[in-house]
Amino acid sequence: MTIATGKLRQLVSLERGEIDRSIFSDPEIFELEMTQIFGRSWLFLCHESQIPKKGDFFEAPIGRDNVLVVRQRDGGIKGLLNTCEHRGNAVCRAEEGNVKNFMCTYHGWTYDIAGKLVGVPGLDELYHNDLDLSRNGLREVAQLEVYKGFVFGTLDPQAPPLADFLGRTGRAGLEFLAGQGELEAVPGIQKFVIPCNWKFAVDNLFDWYHPQITHLSAFQTGLLPSPPDITGSKMKISGVAAPDGSELQMPGGVVSGDAGDQLVFIDAFGHAIAGPTVEAFGDFGGLIDHSWRDTPEARANLGPMSRRSIGHVNLFPTCWITPAFNQISMRVPRGPMETEIWWFTFVPKAATPEQRATIIQGAIHSFGPAGFLEQEDGENWAQSTMQTRGTASAKIPQLLQMNLRRGKVVHDSDGLDPPYIECSINEHGQLWTFASWVEWLTGCDWDELRERTTPPDVI
Ligand code: FES
Ligand code: FE
């Protein structure tokens, strides 16, 4: 399936800060995304700590393919497609576990943990030994690499090395987690479905404009802590009235309205980080430990601006790193209007039981199926997706115009900080993601894609 490049480019205007609503529900666009984005990009699969022993496996999606990430006898890791060579049935129904072999439940073909076909019922009597077992093993992903414990895979043999694909933005994002020391994934990945297009979920992670409205109840109920002294640091939102008619005010540690309080990093291939600085955000009522930012390792691996960022990171297309609660979320597209959300939570191995409990409690209460925030967000994403289907509504462009053409991109020279914009709350992260998204859909080669998604001087 192809859509002419000229037509694709009309879907997103970097100049006007507008995008065509159809991209959130058009099945043709969705199919193109499956091949041009999810069929090529490096995608996060799991963390090494989830598969420590020989035969340990974890199943993760790459687009509509299911991949078994399996620890091998020699300690290496393979990414095997979970589909039987015979009739295509899944050879493993569990989401994770430990196996000696994978046996298909349809006719019993059996594969070892390296994917080699080792057993076929009736091989002598029915196949007359004509079946070449060596040619019918499980297929592997084109490339699999590990970066600081995070396992990624791609279906594209031409994709650049993982560290190159991640760029400085992606590497900084993973450093926000890995910089805290050796990590382990908390057992039990939370998974649930929101009836929305995946791009609304991605757009929202850069959106520091919505918490004061969308998440008002989370703060009013006290479910999420406010900074200890909020009286002197409340943000006034002009033009918005609280229910009692007074000017609406929110704890300043959550959002900020001052120029320079927000940092946006944008990079090639569409990776971005957007969010407040450490100074503007604070420690979220004591929940967040920033001390790792001043360690020699952090200084060696992150530039001075990256070390100030508490922002949400999106590894294009769908891997959200949220450093506040040590989490990674994958937004897994299941259809144009259905997205499965996966949440991984990480704890430093050196954490005390109390620290571990604090991180897990913060994570569970914030995002995921029991998280206050994502339930509120999900309602908005579902409604926004629905409104892209109306005959009249679909014609209204989506707006990303905050601070438009005022975002000066600083190309840092120290080699550690990605290109960044320093400003107040903005929509640059979203706009850059959509501008890059179009280039991915055109199907250009990797060199061209890198060039076309290298940030300009102003957005
Ligand atoms: Fe797997 Fe037949 S489909 S053994
Ligand atoms: Fe939210």
Characterization of this structure:
The protein has 459 residues and is of the alpha+beta class. It has 2 domains: 43-147, Rieske [2Fe-2S] iron-sulphur domain (Rieske Iron-sulfur Protein); 163-452, Naphthalene 1,2-dioxygenase Alpha Subunit, Chain A, domain 1 (Alpha-Beta Complex). It is built from 13 helices and 24 strands. Strands 13, 14, 17, 18, 19, 20, 21, 22 and 24 form a 9-stranded antiparallel beta sheet that branches. Strands 6-5-4-7 form a 4-stranded antiparallel beta sheet, with no helix packed on it. The chain has a 3-stranded antiparallel beta sheet with strand order 1-2-23, covered by helices on one side. Mean pLDDT is 91; it is low at 227-243. The structure holds FE2/S2 (inorganic) cluster and fe (iii) ion. Fe (iii) ion (FE) binds at residues 204, 210-211, 214-215, 373, 377.
Give a quick account of the main beta sheet: strands, pairing sense, barrel closure: 9 strands, antiparallel
Q: What share of residues is helical?
A: 10-25%
Count of DSSP H/I helices: 13
The CATH class assignment of the largest domain is Alpha Beta
In CATH terms, the superfamily of the largest domain is Naphthalene 1,2-dioxygenase Alpha Subunit, Chain A, domain 1
Task: Assign an overall shape.
Answer: globular
Strand content: 15-25%
Number of strands: 24
Q: What is the CATH topology classification name of the largest domain?
A: Naphthalene 1,2-dioxygenase Alpha Subunit, Chain A, domain 1
Tally of domains: 2
Average pLDDT level: 91
Question: Class by helix and strand content?
Answer: alpha+beta
Poorly predicted tracts of residues:
227-243
Radius of gyration: 23 Å
What ligands does this structure carry? FE2/S2 (inorganic) cluster, fe (iii) ion
